Amino acid sequence: MNGDFILFGFSIYAWITILTVISIFVVMARSRIPAEVAFLGALTVLLVTGVVTEEEGMAGFGSEPVVVHAAFFVIIAGLMQTGVLYWLTKNVLGSPQNYHSALLRLMIPTSILAALLNSVNVVALFIDAVKIWSRKLNISPSKLLLPLSYAATLGGMCTLLGNSSNLVVAGLYLNQTGESMNVFEPLIPGVILTIVGVLMVMLLQRQIPSRESAEQSFETTSDYTVELLVPTDNPAVGETVVDAGLYNVKGGSLVEIVRFDREIIMPVPKDEWILGGDRLIYAGQINEILELKRTHGLAAADHHVWSINDIDTKRRMRTAYVTFGSDLIGLSMTKCDFEQKNNVALIAVARRGRRVKGQPREITLQAGDTLLLECPPKGEEQLERDNRRSLTFFDSHFVPQLGPKTITSAVILVLMFIVSSFHMLPLMATTMLAAGLMMILGCCRIRGVTKYIEWELLLILGATLVFSVAITKTGIAVTIANQVLQLCGNNPYIVMAVMCLLASLVSEFVSDVGASAVFFPIMYQQAELLGCNPMPFIMSLMLSVTISFASPVGSSTHMLIYGPGSFRFTDFARLGIWMHIVLLVIALIIVNIIYPLY
To answer: What is the separation of C-alpha 519 from the centre of its chain, rounded to a whole number of angstroms?
Structure first.
């Protein structure tokens, strides 16, 4: 691709690509725009400006990483629905007697399973079990959740399926060379890094922060703020709060009344009249106060209720965490229709393990906030599916029935790895065959498969691979590769170290998938220009973008535990910086021992 305009060695198409990629990183780091929207927007820019053709723009969505991920989601659905993952959760972890034993029992199985089942799936699976452990051991959940995430990230380095960025690098390598990587290609350096990482966590466990559990704050606080609404036909309308028995109630007291016209009455006089549509604000023990819905005909305060008969008394409590990038961040329930749309009511909010004071529905939400929601007794799966981008629910207790299909799905998984590791079939064909067998043999219900498919991730993967094409096509990769070689004196070891350091730093603050796609063409070009074997450059990149331990946005597993562990943003840096430095150095050494440069 040529352009008449040249600035600092780059054509107009190259500058469009550079600015587009930079804007992606800025948007992901500084805004609440969903990642898949940002990536698809960037892809649109590249298509409209002519940087990539329509064929090149669509090719990414049919590439190996996207197809393998889609097939693997079906495989995970089969393992979940037949009870394989439930059996692993129940039997693999065991029952630790102390914190030191808990770390070993947690991190070793987690790292092994993350290599086989993808790190994100394993962390999501084990979070509930870890919270139960923390209660038994009388320690903060954060003391176990951080090692859980680190172990999964480490284990994910060991196979191509363990981490999304591994598949991206493998797919780009296939496109560049025509050679397919073995699913266990990164096994040796991955295992060494995992062992070192687990030992570092064990030795530096005092650096793991202890944060109060959000659930414990919900269970033990005696200072809740609960809002209940007075229906229009309630018998208490027209009576004083004392006469209606709504002033001093079992478990709490009335601290505030919010009229339908937003008038606030606080403190509440004993002779204050009750009007239809009043929101009564109580402080005290949540379960006892909520009994007023049954005994006095009050309703959840998410919308106006005209009749007592409309009140649902069978609703139950569920805990959810506000995810990074959630569209609820920066909003309160009074400023959005979340409650009405989902038929839920916000009861309380905890932040970093402590209840947030004030009226729950008036609280502006932040990433990692823990929400206590009153939900309908049915439609839990629909609730989770509709809000997977905004909230993560961790109190589902689906217990599958173990049986012959449990063994069938486990055998399919084992055979998939055997076939792939011996190169009997390409990885994409192997995973598609395994997914097909899961559905044909009834291990997963076809209707239920969509619940497990991360459509957003597939869109991000497809768009990301196009960026790599654009970086190569516009000459950016060659130009930057030459500039780095000149600065580093054509020393391949220094070049590799500098590029891996930059890639690992970028992946701490944006997507590791995006970092791998951007840096791959540059590092491959550097290997070509130096006349070196590209494999050590590619493997060092694959490992370095995964070495993201110092920030919660550096890994999907970190973001998954951020809310349940009541973490602060800087908590990951206390141990994570040391992990990052040590593991990056070891990765570079091990890769160059295993893969010769020439």
So the answer is: 23
